[in-house]
Amino acid sequence: DISEYSRTLDFRDGVLRRSMIWRTPGGKRVRVTTERMVSFQERHLAIMALEVELLDSDAAVVISSQLLNRQDGEGEFPDNNGPVAVQGGELDPRKGSTFDERVLIPKHQSQPEPERATLGYQVNHSGMTVAASMDHELRVDNPATADSGDVEVTTEVAEDVASVVYHINGAKGCHLRLEKFVSYHSSRHVAPKELAFRCDRTINRAKQVGYSSLVENQRGWLGEFWERSDVRIGGQPELQQAARWCIFQLIQASARAETTGVPAKGLTGAGYGGHYFWDTEIYVMPFLSYTNSNYARNALRFRYEMLPSAHERALELSHDGVLFPWRTINGHESSAYYAAGTAQYHIDADVAFALMKYFYATEDKDFLMREGVKILLGTARFWVSIGFFNSAQDRFEIHAVTGPDEYTTVVNNNLYTNVMAQYNLRMAAKVLKKMRAERPDDYADLAAQHKLNDSELDRWELAAEQMYIPFNEELGINPQDDFFLNRQIWDLDDPNGEPKRPLLLHYHPLTIYRYQILKQADVVLALFLQGERFSQEVKRADYDYYDRLTTGDSTLSAVVQSIMAAELGYADKALEFFHRGLFVDLADMHGNTSDGVHIASCGGVWTALTYGFGGLRDHDGEFTIDPRLPEGWEHLSYNVTVRDVQVRVTVRPGEVELVSVQGKDAGVVTVLGQEVRVTGEPQVVAGETVLAAG
């Protein structure tokens, strides 16, 4: 019987706390409090605490602390014997795979100290190694009438579970606190026994610092993070809390991704098998580039290290250049269904786009001219290789591709793909020509290494200039691809019954492919990412046409639709789609949050706040702000760090305020059509900022 219960996640220190009063079957009341924290500063450390207080009677207390390999071992709970299936139930491509064999092969077990235990493994197929260790500190405050030294400790270590069990005879009023230190290390080359030694060293350092100091240190670290990254929504406490939850998920997913990417689920669940997609580049990188640029650079370096595998993949498909994998965990393509996987060639342009967004936010020329140029060179070569110059039409076309909308596959001239490839080609030519002029020796080395000649750069520019961008004069819209408008429309508002959702779980792909129906924003995403090349009239026509066809079966869609609805003045739709993206996990709106948090949607929430309602636009280093503040919001405040200068933007009804947080000159920004130099002195620009309902 639980008489009181609370659970809180404190964004200020990253500690998850639970508290309850439990009445035992014998009627004894016990207060139980737990804490759990994964350290941002100590990359191999997590700490936990359990407090037990006997409120109204004596009791024998037994605490079992475990280190458990739940995949191969005794189950997640003591009474759940046998291996744990990672996922089960209906066939759902979004879920992680189940395993019918051991994943982790036991290689090391040890008990270096009385209350410390270590387990070490080798991963069955990859050969990677991992070790985890736990240690404890127990404090018992027993009334003077009890034997405060009456504590019995037993430790057992087996292949898949280690346990430390405490037996305490507690008197009424007894208060005990058990602190647990957990360390984990992994490697591609080091033996589990050596990793166990590393775990020992990590725990020794942590215990020397102390539990309370570790929490306090993390509070300081997160304080600096929130100073750079917070978004404030005045007068909307529920939205404020949810937005900060999303931002917290982003930093959890990216802060320690130093040699890896950001998985679609972060580290919150086994959905998608831990794989990386384009999610990072399009939905997470804007947040990282403008608030935590070191983590953005780490994500880009992860793609850079993938270039050899991407080159091999392009060769497998008879293409030049590089083709980044649509779905991967180690650089190799892991997508089993080419139509909705490998054919999404836009991944190359997405990586190039993220690279340039990072550069224009940071002006990190060294990274651009060292690693970035190789990404741009390889991706530009790829586009020229798979596309062709249609001399009869005097244009460059790209056939047999799939855009972001996975309900329409293997098409010719997908608008999003062509627009993004065009940008990719232009930036590649621009950056390499700049390198040729400013760093001739480096350019000569690059050209020799990759057999690059000047005429190739000209060819990239010509392909970009002649890139075919589909447009239907009769409807005044951009078709999603050459054949899209010829398909039958699938009416989502059919009075005879709406289709079962999500479509991918209820209809065969061949059925879905026959219709004008979208899984997620495709053309509308292009309108946002490359907005400067579309007129407002065309944007409105495109949005109106595709909005009624978009199912939103992908969690990537709502935030993009919100941004464009805000730009076009569709206040109700902007807020509706924003709420869908904001609460997709907190309200489990897609019914699969148990598989892990949708990290890209969290990134999209930040983008919807800053770019959508906040009105931020960035085009090749030029910044404009034209806000769309929803009615009822007292203000919206966000931070962007541009060229190492943090700028705070505050939107209120009728005005926009900009200030350089550290007082440095942040350059010129166009605000509500006026050019403003941003300094340490707040600059206020008056004008229409409210997105009127309707």
UniProtKB/TrEMBL annotation:
Residues 244-607 form the Glycoside hydrolase family 65 central catalytic domain. GO terms for molecular function: carbohydrate binding; glycosyltransferase activity; hydrolase activity, hydrolyzing O-glycosyl compounds. Residues 1-188 form the Glycoside hydrolase family 65 N-terminal domain. Residues 616-678 form the Glycoside hydrolase family 65 C-terminal domain. The active site is at residue 406. Substrate binds at residues 278-279, 519-520. It comes from the Bacteria. InterPro entries: 6-hairpin_glycosidase_sf, 6hp_glycosidase-like_sf, Gal_mutarotase_sf_dom, GH65_N, Glyco_hydro_65_C, Glyco_hydro_65_M, Glyco_hydro_65_N, Malt_Pase/Glycosyl_Hdrlase. Pfam families: Glyco_hydro_65C, Glyco_hydro_65m, Glyco_hydro_65N. Keywords: Glycosidase, Hydrolase. GO terms for biological process: carbohydrate metabolic process. Belongs to the glycosyl hydrolase 65 family. PANTHER family: GLYCOSYL HYDROLASE-RELATED, GLYCOSYL TRANSFERASE. This is Glycoside hydrolase family 65 protein.
